[in-house]
Design goal:
Elements lengths: L3 E2 H8 L2 E4 L5 E2 L2 E2 L10 E3 L12 H7 L3 E4 L12 E3 L3 H14 L5 E5 L4 H12 L5 E3 L7 H8 L8 E5 L7 H9 L3 E4 L7 H4 L2 H8 L10 E5 L3 H8 L4 E6 L6 E8 L5 E5 L4 E4 L4 H16 L4 H8 L10 E5 L2 E6 L5 H13 L6 E5 L9 H14 L4 E5 L1 H11 L4 E5 L2 H8 L8 E5 L6 H13 L7
Length: 461
């Protein structure tokens, strides 16, 4: 954040400086007392399972310049400056919106059902070849995350790369109002958060709020996605398509898996690069980054050099190996579209052993939850998987369909049960895909499985 006095911040927030020196300046914001640095202004957010007001004294002890609060602190009142507001989340967003007003550079917003974080990371890598980029950290794609990204603004920033997420109608519009993007990029439209959007057209309506936003001047979109392409064609804005179809403006001649489980992308121009993460869908994410870079004046050759050897964010098709067994950690989240892409990947990965899926629950699917889980099981059979371990009720339905199609299955009630039952069955050369929504905690299973494999000698056979 560009330097402001506490008096200025109080006026922006419509709050009251209860105590302390208002002329004191602040350049950075934190909502996490554990990551707070001396000089940060601490914003005490309140959620369902936490209350930042309980950590005001911790913030003072670390050296925060003050705190933004929404409730009285009569007991154990700190001695540093306090700004009181009605709602600290609204205050954070208001301060971020004001900081956005101080930006004169392009603001790129990325949305889509899948691939937002990977595309953001790859776009950051390409654009950084020429520009000072302010990019979202981790998957900062809600009101808090977008606000914190904007509040990391510095005087030398040339462009901003944000990701916008949603699981309820109207959230993309609210985030656009906050960040006022000038460039939009949509990765794809898939079967995500269907409990709240109904179907893919409902997802499309929500995502299209981004390219339709009045401040957006240019739109990048996935030409391989027919539903998305149809919607974009009716938009009266400058646009650039990317994909493998013949009419894509930024086109890949081929996207192929390599023997070492990378993804080789060959551009129509002849330039090529190999990502250090597997999957055709990952190649499309990289293609989006190349298209974006070209529009910003970065040569395809330079973009290819920047992307060669690139990894994605953690737990997005992240390959981990131990005891001769490769585990694809794709546990950040799961929905029917992303699971389908990951199963397609598993079926194509070069391997000496079996293809194994460890499946956790897919969340937020609404009344068709059972049907989508069963569909996943049928797809496992169609793709010739050898083995499936199911954790939870929905995956058990999937396992039933997979078993009927010749896949060996194991059904477990918990990740503990799954780990104990699966571990002895693994052999050297096996490829294990682990996938599930965040609530399923499949990331914990991956960490424990890889840790146990690292301390063992897997069966050769």
């Amino acid at each position: 954040m560009l330097a402001r006095s506490l008096d200025e911040i109080g006026k922006v927030l419509g709050g009251e400086l209860l105590q302390g020196r208002g002329e004191r300046t602040c350049c950075s914001i934190s909502t996490d007392s554990r990551a707070l640095r001396p000089g940060d202004l601490f914003v005490a957010l309140r959620g369902e399972r936490f209350d930042g007001h309980e950590y005001i004294r911790d913030a003072e002890a670390v050296g925060a310049c003050g705190a933004v609060i929404s409730e009285s602190l009569e007991s154990e009142k700190p001695s540093f400056p306090l700004i009181q507001v009605q709602d600290t989340l609204q205050a954070l967003c208001r301060l971020a919106s004001e900081e956005r007003s101080r930006l004169s550079c392009p603001v790129i917003a990325i949305t889509g059902s899948n691939g937002k974080s990977t595309t953001r990371a790859l776009a950051d890598r390409v654009l950084s070849a020429k520009y000072q980029v302010l990019a979202a950290e981790k998957s900062y794609n809600n009101q808090i995350g977008v606000s914190l990204t904007l509040l990391r603004n510095e005087p030398n920033v040339d462009c901003v790369v944000l990701e916008l997420g949603t699981n309820h109608p109207g959230e993309i519009e609210a985030l656009c109002r906050l960040c006022r993007p000038t460039v939009a990029l949509i990765t794809n439209i898939g079967k995500s958060h269907l409990e709240f959007f109904g179907d893919e057209r409902g997802v499309l309506r929500e995502k299209m709020a981004l390219p339709k936003w009045p401040t957006v001047e240019h739109v990048f979109y996935n030409a391989d996605d027919a539903l998305l392409s149809e919607a974009i064609r009716g938009l009266d804005k400058e646009r650039t398509s990317f994909g493998t179809v013949p009419h894509a403006q930024m086109r890949a001649e081929s996207i192929e898996l390599t023997p070492r489980w990378g993804t080789l992308v060959v551009l129509e121009s002849g330039h090529r690069f190999e990502l250090d993460l597997p999957g055709r869908h990952q190649g499309l994410n990289a293609l989006a980054a190349v298209a974006l870079g070209k529009w910003f004046g970065i040569l395809e050759q330079t973009a290819a050099q920047r992307l060669d050897g690139s990894k994605g964010p953690p737990r997005r098709c992240e390959v981990k190996e131990a005891a001769g067994i490769r585990v694809v950690d794709d546990t950040y989240n799961s929905n029917p579209s992303s699971l389908g892409a990951s199963l397609e990947l598993l079926s194509r990965l070069p391997r000496q052993g079996r293809g194994i899926l460890v499946m956790g629950q897919m969340a937020e699917l609404g009344e068709k939850e059972s049907a989508y889980h069963k569909e996943a099981g049928r797809f496992c059979g169609e793709k010739g998987l050898d083995y499936m371990a199911a954790v939870g009720e929905g995956p058990a339905l999937a396992a039933g369909e997979a078993k009927a199609r010749g896949v060996e299955v194991l059904c477990c009630e918990s990740i503990d049960d799954c780990l104990e039952a699966l571990f002895p069955l693994l052999r050297q050369g096996d490829a294990v895909l682990v996938k599930g929504s965040r609530a399923a905690r499949m990331d914990e299973l991956v960490d424990r499985l890889v840790g146990r494999l690292a301390g063992s000698q897997a069966y050769e056979g």
